[in-house]
Amino acid sequence: MARTSFMRWVESVRQQNITTNGSLERELEDAKKEYSEFVKTDPLYTKICDAILPKIKDHPNILQTELYKLFPQFNKDDISYALFFSAEHGKVNRAKKGRTYCLSVLLERFA
């Protein structure tokens, strides 16, 4: 529930920033940072990262769409959420490749 609330809050600030021609840019960046810090403590994020990071390490440059198939126990949106923030937190590299992303691990403990 907290995850959804944060997501909605950030999107609300983003929309307000658009309608005010960028006058809330600082507030938007602050909201994004606060959301990112929350994610670090989100049990879902931790659970998914613990499962997928070793697989990414073992299969460098795996496509995100392929990763979905390897973890059917997780919702695709939840995996996408974990990967987005894993990239933001410096755990993985996500490089756009067509309609998906090519993934590789960045953390030394997984290297």
Structural description of this entry:
There is one protein chain. With 111 residues, the protein is an alpha+beta fold. The chain folds into 2 domains: 2-39, no CATH class; 43-110, Arc Repressor Mutant, subunit A, CATH 1.10.10. Helix content is 62%, strand content 13%. It contains 5 helices and 3 strands. The chain has helices spanning 2-19, 25-39, 43-58, 64-70, 76-88; strands spanning 62-63, 92-97, 100-105. A 3-stranded antiparallel beta sheet has the order 1-3-2. A hairpin with a 2-residue loop joins strand 2 and strand 3. Helix 1 (2-19) runs antiparallel to helix 2 (25-39). The longest helix is centred in the N-terminal third of the chain and has 18 residues, at 2-19. The protein is elongated, with a radius of gyration of 15 Å.
Main features:
alpha+beta; Arc Repressor Mutant, subunit A; elongated; 2 domains; 3-stranded antiparallel β-sheet; 62% helix; single chain; 111 residues; 5 helices
- What is the CATH level 1 assignment of the largest domain? Mainly Alpha
Strand order of the largest sheet: 1-3-2
Based on secondary structure, the structural category is alpha+beta
CATH superfamily of the largest domain: Winged helix-like DNA-binding domain superfamily/Winged helix DNA-binding domain
Count of structural domains: 2
